[in-house]
Prior knowledge:
Elements (H helix, E strand, L loop, with lengths): L1 H11 L15 E3 L6 E2 L1 E3 L2 E10 L12 E4 L5 E7 L4 E4 L1 H4 L1 E6 L3 E7 H6 L2 E8 L3 E5 L11 H8 L1 H11 L5 H12 L9 H11 L12 H17 L6 H26 L2
Antiparallel strand pairs: 1-4, 1-11, 2-10, 3-4, 4-9, 5-8, 5-11, 6-7, 6-10, 8-9
Helix pairs in contact: 4-5, 5-9, 6-8, 6-9, 8-9
Amino acid sequence: MRTLFFAAFASLGLIATASPAISAPQMMGLVASNAAVPLQCQRGDCFAELTAFCLQPERASPVQGTAYRMHDPSRLVAFATTKDGRRIELDAKQHLEIKAERSHVAVRIGMSSRTMARLGLRQVHIKVARNATLVPLSIQGDKSPLQADEIVAGAGPMRTIGASYVDQEQHWMPVARMTNRLINALPPGGRVSEQRRSGLWDAVIGPDGFAQTPPGTDQRLRGVYEQCQQAVAVGRLPSLRRCLEGKHDSMVGTLNNRYWYAIKSGS
Length: 267
């Protein structure tokens, strides 16, 4: 089946045989969130960070702040608590912005604090469904815009292969997902107290955190967590969040490389 997909990509000219595009960046897969993720606010922005990966290695990775949209808006759901205590569902397409955060492995999804205030919101949670795809917003004057057949292939057969190599991978992706939960439980900038660092595991993972994960996930995540705790304690890295981001990006990047190899080799 993957060989057939590869043949389809080749017929569309989507396999990396040319130089990288100079304008529109790559489409990305957005990894599903197992639970709703709350937005945190800092310096006028309220956002959560989610895991992503590159679907088109022949196109350039996005720079930080590059704007994206959901290919299928129904795969991103946002719930809010208003200041008067009501629970409402937001129109995610209308109110949420999606921006690349760290190359093609992490994105920010959220809104400005001004928008939060205008809508009378106290808290917002977002949740991403399976097999979500991100498409970069069109830019006026783009010298190499995404073509319709690229988008069809990226959100269709390429996303299907990406799911098997990245989203559904059972060794490191479960660890990356839980690392992402730890990241979103820390403030976006600066250090936190030693007490908060040491209590993060119990606050986020809890006693039943691995009930639905593959065997070995707890040991692998514990290794990542303890390495980062040590790195911050000795001053090798400035913050626990920064360390966890680096670990997360390394895990997702490795899986992304395997996907790239698969689509290029047709395996």
